[in-house]
């Protein structure tokens, strides 16, 4: 059972480059989330999705875009990478039934120089 | 502004000591989740509280949710070095007619042997 899979695990970008962080889950969860975690800090919600075709902004959406064309996939796009986007990015999903927690991927460590 | 406040931000305790971490919101929490994160790794689900006044325990960790469902505490009894890490509270906050998970700022715990 794969759960939530994120790729890549590590990436170094130059300022102004773009990239897509991939996230896929095989649990048929409707809800999916992208978070960033800066060193020594908690998680900040970037975007979330409550189902295919539906996305919404979280706490820190600027500089990012998302899409949700299928239930399984929820990619996060950085169009013009900036040093402030250096962080660890976590994808998570849940079926949002009572008592069910978020299932997290292992994270993508991104450095923008 | 931070919708979920955690305190303290960091904590250093001697092995064997008890400790408490708090998580507070100005909004009603529709589900309160506690996670642990080892440094540089993903999040591990600890427990979830839904009902006002609810209390759950797992091994030496006890979590409570107050009657108003706006504050939760995590208590560790007789701490061990294996308890070290970052503790994060997360909650369902009703947003835009759907549920979005947000997280507190995290508490970094060190346990000295």
Q: How would you characterize the largest beta sheet of chain A?
A: 7 strands, mixed
Number of strands of chain A: 11
Number of strands of chain B: 11
What is the beta-strand fraction of chain A? over 45%
The major sheet of chain B is characterized as:
6 strands, mixed
The pair of chains with the biggest contact is: A-B, 26 and 25 residues
How much is the average pLDDT of chain B?
89
Identify the overall geometry of chain B: globular
Kindly state the percentage of residues in helix of chain B: under 10%
Distance between the termini of chain B: 37 Å
Rg result of chain A = 13 Å
Helix/sheet category of chain A: mainly beta
How many DSSP H or I helices of chain A? 0
Q: Indicate the low-confidence ranges of chain B by residue numbers.
A: none
Instruction: Note the quaternary state here.
Output: heterodimer
Radius of gyration of chain B, taken over Cα atoms and rounded to an integer in Å = 14 Å
Mean pLDDT metric of chain A: 93
Work out the strand percent of chain B: over 45%
Structural shape of chain A: globular
Describe the structure.
- The complex is a heterodimer of chains A (about 110) and B (about 110).
- Helix content of chain A is about 0%, strand content about 50%.
- Chain A has no helices and eleven strands.
- In chain A, strands 2, 4, 5, 6, 9, 10 and 11 form a seven-stranded mixed beta sheet that branches. In chain A, strands 1-3-8-7 form a four-stranded antiparallel beta sheet, with no helix packed on it.
- In chain A, strand 4 (about 30-35) and strand 5 form a beta hairpin.
- In chain A, about 35% of the residues are buried.
- The mean pLDDT of chain A is about 95.
- Helix content of chain B is about 0%, strand content about 60%.
- By secondary structure, chain B is an all-beta fold.
- Chain B is globular and about 45 Å long.
């Amino acid at each position: 059972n794969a759960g939530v899979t994120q790729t890549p695990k590590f990436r170094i970008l130059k300022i102004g480059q773009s990239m897509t962080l991939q996230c896929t889950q095989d649990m048929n969860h409707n809800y999916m989330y992208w978070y960033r975690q800066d060193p020594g800090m908690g998680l900040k919600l970037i975007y979330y999705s409550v189902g295919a075709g539906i996305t919404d902004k979280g706490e820190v959406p600027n500089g990012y875009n998302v899409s949700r064309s299928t239930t399984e996939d929820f990619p996060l796009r950085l169009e013009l990478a900036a040093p402030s986007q250096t962080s660890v990015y976590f994808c998570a999903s849940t079926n949002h039934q009572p008592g069910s927690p978020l299932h997290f991927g292992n994270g993508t460590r991104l450095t923008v120089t | 502004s931070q919708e979920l406040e955690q305190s303290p931000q960091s904590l250093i305790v001697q092995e064997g000591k008890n400790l408490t971490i708090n998580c507070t919101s100005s909004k009603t929490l529709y589900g309160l989740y506690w996670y642990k994160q080892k440094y540089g790794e993903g999040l591990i689900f600890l427990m979830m509280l839904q009902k006002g006044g609810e209390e759950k325990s797992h091994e030496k960790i006890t979590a409570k949710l107050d009657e108003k469902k706006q504050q939760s505490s995590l208590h560790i009894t007789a701490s061990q070095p294996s308890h070290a890490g970052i503790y994060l509270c997360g909650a369902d906050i009703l947003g835009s007619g759907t549920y979005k998970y947000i997280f507190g700022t995290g508490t970094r715990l060190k346990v000295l042997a």
